[in-house]
Amino acid sequence: MDPNPTIKGRGAQINVPNRFFQLSHEMRDDFLEYCAKEGEDADKNKTLYLEVFPKTIVNKVESPDVGMGYSMNMYQGCEHGCIYCYARNTHEFWGYSAGLDFERRILVKKDAPKLLEKFIKRKSWEAHPIVMSGNTDCYQPAEQEFKLTRQCLEIFLKYKHPVSIITKNALILRDLDLLKELSKDNLISVNISITSLSEETRRVLEPRTATIKKRLETVKILSENGIPVNVMMAPIIPSINSHEILSLAKNVSELGALSIGHTIVRLNGAIAEIFTDWIKKTMPERADKVLHQIESCHGGSLNDSRYGTRMRGEGEIAKQINDMVKLAKLKYFRDKQMPTLNTSLHEQYKDGQLKLF
User: Fold this and answer.
1) Which CATH number fits domain 32-258: 1.10.10, 3.30.1330, 3.40.50, 3.20.20?
2) Which of 27, 254, 256, 351 is most buried, judging by how many CB atoms fall within 10 Å of its CB?
3) Which residue ranges traverse the bilayer (predicted)?
4) What is the mean pLDDT of residues 91-99?
C-alpha cells in the first residue's frame, strides 16, 4: 500500500490536530490495511454542509495591512481547497482541523441576508464598503445550492450600500444583473484572484476552483459591463508562480482589469505543516527549494505574523518579487485606477427606498 496516498480533488492531504484540543485523531496503518482487504473506503472524501447560527455577520477588520475595514462571510471553510489559504487557521475556532476539515466541513450561515439587513439599517451605521469573502470565497461551490451571496447582493442594492467582492470563481457571472445595477451608482468593485496562467499549476494549488480560462473570461466580461476589476496575484510562491508576474499582469490588463495586487506566501499556524506535507507529495523534486525560498522571505521561518512585512516579505527573493510587481504596474497599469466606492447614497435609502425629506 502507498504509505502516503494522494486524496484526489483536495488541496490538503492531512487533517492536522486542532491546537485547541487535547485529543486528536489519526489514520492508523492497520486500519488502512483492513479497509484495503475489505474493499472499503477508509475516507469517503465527501463534503458536508453544516448550518450555524451566528448573531452577527459583519466584522470590523482590525489588521492594519489587510486593506479592508469591514468584511462578511456567508460560509466558513472553503471547498476550493487552496493549499496556501490563510483562512484555514480560522476553522480551528469552530472545532475543526485546518487541513481536510476546512475543505470538507463547510459551515453555512443561512441567516446572513437577514443579519446583513439588520446591520446596515442601524441608525448609528455610516456607510463603509463591506467586503464579501474577507475570509472564505463567497462564490465557492456551496453558493450554487444556498445562493446566500446573491441574496446579500440584493440587500446591498436595495439599500444602495457599497460592497466589494473577492473571489476566484466564475460563478460571480450568474449575478451579473445585480452587479450591473450596483455599478450604475458606483457601489461595487470586484477582486478576482488569479495566481497563475498555468492550468497545471492551478489544479495542484487550487483543486476545486474555476479554471484559469474561466477566470480570465470573468475579468473580461465584468470589465466590458463597467464593473471595476482588480486582479489579485495572491499569493506569489517562489519557484512556483513567481516567474509569471509580468505575463499575468499584461494578460489581465488587456482584458480590462484596472489594477493588480499581490502578496508573498506566508504559512502561519497549521498551514506550515499542511503545505509542507502537500508539497513533498505533489512536488517532491523541488519541495525543499520552495520551502527554503519561502523561509528566506520571512526571516528564516515559514511563519510570519508581523504587520507591515508579513504580506510583502523581506530579503533578496522578496525584493525581486516586489520590484517585479512594481514594474508590472508601471508597464501595464500606468493610466488605470480602481474607483473609490460611493458611500453617499445609503443614508437616504435606510428604509429601503429613497427618502424625500
Assistant:
1) 3.20.20
2) 256
3) none
4) 94
